[in-house]
Amino acid sequence: MRLSTEGIARSCSRHPWRTIGVWLAVLVLSFGLIGTLLADALTGGEEVTSETDSKRGDELMFERFRPTNDEIERSTTEVVLVRGENAAERGNALAEELRTAGATNVVTSTDDPTLVSADGDTVGLLVALGFDPEDRIGGVIEAVERLDAEPGLEAAITGEWTLEEDFGQLAQDDLRNGELFFGAPAALIVLLLVFGTVVAGFVPLVLALVSILVAIALTALVGQVWGLSEFVTNMIFGMGLALGIDYSLFILSRYREERTEGRDKTDAIGASAATASRAVLFSGFAFVVAMTGLLLVPNTIMRSLAAGAILVGFTSLLAALTLLPAVLGLLGDRVNALRLPYFGRSVGGQGATESRFWGRIVAAVMRRPVVSLVAATALLVAAAIPVLSLEIGTAGISTVPDRFASKQGYLLLNEEFPGQTTEPAEIVVDGQVDSDAVQAAIERLETQLATNPVFGEPEAESNETGDTTVLTVPVAGDPSSAEAVAAVRDLRSDLIPAAFEGAPAEVYVAGDTAEEIDYFDVMSSWQLPVFIFVLGLSFILLTVAFRSVVLPAKAILLNLLSVGAAYGLLVLVFQKGVGNELFGFQQVDAIEAWVPLFLFAVLFGLSMDYQVFLLSRIRERFMRTGSNDDAIAFGVGSTARLITGAALIIIAVFSGFARGDLVMFQQMGFGVAVALLIDATIVRSVLVPASMKLLGSWNWYLPSWLGWLPNVHVEGAEPPR
């Protein structure tokens, strides 16, 4: 048998129970892998994998100070605060409970009088969690919550691992409330409206869920080798719904079209595989290529999200090419069962008929192509203007909802111990620190820090060999805030160079804020290489697909307009606060550092799907009739219902992300939804027909020296009837 999409589909449809049995076995194995391996595969936080200033500082502290096991066991990561009557006494009693619950060391106000607030009503406890904090933090938080429930007392906890625990809980809540309770039901509603029957509406959703489960199992395996972010499951679920439903939607629609035109069940499956499945395979490959560009970025969260998207893209393709034909082989015309009133009659039997609504819009655009092109372009450029104010950052503790423990502890800490922080900056001085020149430089820096209200009083510690000093400097407020970031940047660029000018020492700044600054800088430095990678490969793929250099260039320019407008609206809503309350979003200082780059790759990968589907129909018609205008009108009109439905499904899915509490996913969900809305309306109905009308025969221009390119039919040729 010839290995092709048609051959695979015919084989799977002839032996449906064998194919479904294999998938059921894979599902059982997937549940086992998820249950046993997933928890160990996922990690919290983000890490830059390349060499940075903060990373070098951390390495020097570990190498030069060599903390003993006992010191690590006693190293503080969390702060517990107790406010109310007999706070000191209750704090001491809580310390014993915390040790029982998992804390490896607790320092109380009895041990350190500075842990009592100015008014004496609040005491702090410094809590250490040893070598395995992720296993201990849960019990510690529960002990604090039990005390907080007592009348007349307020107890709260904050710190690195409390925040990680809360971010993990937020991710689970957003997945449940945003995707399971909103995204999936909204996608199902769109499917029911597109197909007009209950069975046809459920088939793509079921296949998408199968793809998601298998992809999560693969993630559990991959995570045993490379640590993956805990947010990867959110990405797999959202992207799996979007891709899995879209791929099945295109193929199932073509199958129903072939049945409407008279083919029997087996031939209709073969014909849909020879056409729609080929287009899906090409689009899936294009999506994977776009996401592969993100693997270049040396950052764990970016690589995790890219890996999750690639894995679920692969499983979605596999399900669409094998499981869907088997399901259609079993169901046959029963896929049209349980028709919906009105919608079932109106859309249930439509084939590739042209949409009158979109047809009228395209006709109006093509009558005035210059005006349409200029007006639509001006609108998108205007939407993109706010991107000039784009600031990148990261969602810190101040963006966490107040109901979470880490936020409550953070607020109480700022109220009762102003200027204190759980995440200070650590200035690492590498040199002969006992020399006069270096000592003088350290003293100059300490003097500068003492006069700067952003910084607290530094504490200095030198190692025994006298070649390293670490100054621990509190930085007021949220370590991720714009103020903290500006302070540490100023420390690196101005204060340290001025203090250590001429001193024989290298100085590094470590700590949470410094790590985040390095993360921002790495993300910024990789934007251009990723853009070039994605744009270059997109151009090559489209050139091969359509044997034209003009269409790929135009498609890329239009995609860039969509992305630019999405960036601008993202800044307008989240940074400027225009309409953010209408959507239920927080106004923040910056856009999450990974979001712009991730949006770019995702949008290029997803919009390529629609571009390929639309342009292949236009090219097919043009090659048949030779009329540019007729080909444009037919291509847009005949694909309108399907592309609109596919876009609405993805918009619904990513709107589920935007409904959550995690600011990073709010931004990602809003960005994807807005960009695809622009792509499916302004770009497809105005910019594509207007630009193609003006270009005329130049649309299909291919230089003679590229004549050797293969003549690829993305949707293939229909098998003979």
Please tell me about this protein's structure.
With 721 residues, this protein is α+β, with helices and mostly antiparallel strands. The chain folds into four domains: 1-43 and 196-350, Multidrug efflux transporter AcrB transmembrane fold (Up-down Bundle); 48-69 and 424-511, Alpha-Beta Plaits (2-Layer Sandwich), CATH 3.30.70; 75-165, Alpha-Beta Plaits (2-Layer Sandwich), CATH 3.30.70; 352-389 and 519-700, Multidrug efflux transporter AcrB transmembrane domain (Multidrug efflux transporter AcrB transmembrane fold), CATH 1.20.1640. Helices cover 65% and strands 8% of the residues. The protein has a four-stranded antiparallel beta sheet. Strand 9 and strand 10 form a beta hairpin. It is elongated.
Keywords:
Multidrug efflux transporter AcrB transmembrane fold, Alpha-Beta Plaits, 721 residues, 4-stranded antiparallel sheet
Instruction: Provide a count of the helices.
Output: 24
As for the CATH topology of the largest domain, it is: Multidrug efflux transporter AcrB transmembrane fold
Global Rg? 29 Å
N-C termini distance: 20 Å
* CATH secondary-structure class of the largest domain: Mainly Alpha
Structurally, the number of domains stands at 4
CATH H-level superfamily title of the largest domain: Multidrug efflux transporter AcrB transmembrane domain
Q: What is the number of strand segments?
A: 12
What is the arithmetic mean of pLDDT? Answer: 87
Strand order of the largest sheet: 3-4-2-5
Biggest pleated-sheet summary? 4 strands, antiparallel
Low-confidence stretches: 345-351
The name of the CATH architecture of the largest domain is: Up-down Bundle
Q: What is the helical fraction, as a range of percent?
A: 55-70%
Structural class, please? Answer: alpha+beta
